Amino acid sequence: MKRIILLNESFPNEFKSVNIELELEYEKINYIENQIINSVNNYNSKLNVEHIEYLDISKQFPSFKTGKSNGLLIEEFTINPKNKDTYLRNGCYIYSIENDLDKKYICRKILMYLFISNTSEKSRTSFISQTIFPTLLDYAEDYLDSPSYSLANHKFCFINIVNKKITSQMILRHIVSLYLSGMDYIEVFDNNSFIKNNLPKNLKQFFNNYYSDYNSNYNLDADIYENDFCKIDFYNKVFIWKTNTMISKLIIKNNGKMDFKGSEEKFYWMELLPISIFAYKQGYRIDFSEYSDFIEKYKEFFSEESKKFLRCNTLLKYIEKYFT
To answer: By C-alpha distance, which of 66, 38, 69 is closest to 52?
Structure first.
C-alpha cells in the first residue's frame, strides 16, 4: 500500500519561485517535493506519503475539481478483480499491470483534498481566498444532497509553501479561521506562523486577536461587535451575516447584467464561511437572513450563466443545510 500526492501538471514550475537559495538551482523542485512530503508525514506519521506525481487528475478522478492550486492525497493498493466494480462505484480509479505470469489490478482511492498556497504572501486578500475558492463551493455543490454536513466526502488540507513566517493579520485570520472550521493546515517550512496550542478558544478571542478594529467596534455594554461583514451578539450567541459590502462591489457588465467586481465574492466567502462554521460549533445561531434576501432580491439582475452568482447560491444552499 502506498500514499501519493497528486498535483496538477503546472506545479513543478510553480515550485521554482519558492524563496529559497540552493547551491544548485535545478535541484529546487526535488528539494521542495521532499519538504512537502516530509511536512505531511510529520503532521501525520500514519500517512507515510512516498512521492508526488504530476498529471491531469480529472482523467483518473472525474469528480475532481480542477483548479490552479489543488490536488489530492491518495492511497494505492492491489485489489481482487472481483471487487473492481465496487471500488469504481465508490469513486476509485483502477488500472492494471500485466506480465507473463499474472495481471494485477491496482486501486487508487482519495484520502484527502489538498490546497497548495502561492509561493509568496504579497497579496493579502487573495492568498487564501483565491486558493480555496471557488473550488470549495464546487465540491459543496456536488454533496448538497448527501447526508453528511461537511462540505465534501473527504477532509481538506491547506499546505503553505511560503518560506517565511507570515505576520499579516489578514492572512493569519484566514488561516486560523480555516483551521478552526476543521480544515487541516500544514506549514512546509515550519516557520511557526501561528502556534496551534495558542489558538483562540472562543469566538470573542478570535475577533479580538485578528481584527484591528475590534476595540473600536466592540460595544462593551451590549457585548456586541460589528464590522463590514458581520455583527456578533456574544451575550445571546448570535452571528449575523451582513451584505452591504458585497452589494457595493457589484458592477454592470456589457450585457446589462450585474456581476461581482474581480474576486470580491471570494473575499466575502472567506471572511464569513469558515468562522461561521466555528461559531456554529461554539453554539452560536447563524443568522444569514440578510444573505438569503440578497440572493432572492438580486437573482433577476444576474445572468443565468454567472458562475459567481451560481456559487453564491450554492453557498446559501449549504448554509441552509448546515446551520438550520
So the answer is: 38
Domain range summary for the chain, segments of one domain joined by +: 2-193, 200-323
CA distances from 69 to 66, 154, 274, 318 (A): 8, 17, 19, 23
Please name the residue that has the C-alpha cell 453564491.
312
- Alpha-helical regions (H) of the chain: 11-15, 28-43, 84-89, 126-132, 135-142, 169-181, 203-210, 214-217, 244-248, 264-281, 289-298, 307-323
Other CB atoms within 10 A of residue 194 CB: 18
What is the number of other CB atoms lying within 10 angstroms of the CB of residue 236? 11
Q: How far is CA 94 from CA 84, 89, 222, in A?
A: 7, 11, 59
Instruction: Count Cβ neighbours within 10 Å for each residue of 206-232 and write b for 16 or more, e otherwise.
Output: bbebbbeeeeeebeeeeebbbbebbbb
Calculate helix-pair angle for 135-142, 307-323, nearest 10 degrees.
60
Terminal-residue alpha carbon distance, the chain: 41
Judged by DSSP in three states, 188 sits in coil
Residue range 194-238, pLDDT digits in tens: 777 789 999 999 999 999 999 999 999 999 999 999 999 999 999
Determine the Cα–Cα distance for residues 282 and 72; give it in Å rounded to an integer.
Answer: 30
Give the integer Cα–Cα distance in Å for 195 and 165. Answer: 12
| Ramachandran class of 35: left when φ > 0, alpha when ψ lies in -120 to 50, beta otherwise | alpha
- Judge whether residue 21 has pLDDT over 90: no
| pLDDT of 25 higher than 70 | no
Identify any residues that bridge with 232 across adjacent strands, giving them in sequence order.
225, 239
Q: Are strands 103-116 and 155-160 parallel, antiparallel or unpaired?
A: parallel
Each residue's pLDDT tens digit, 119-136: 988 888 889 999 999 999
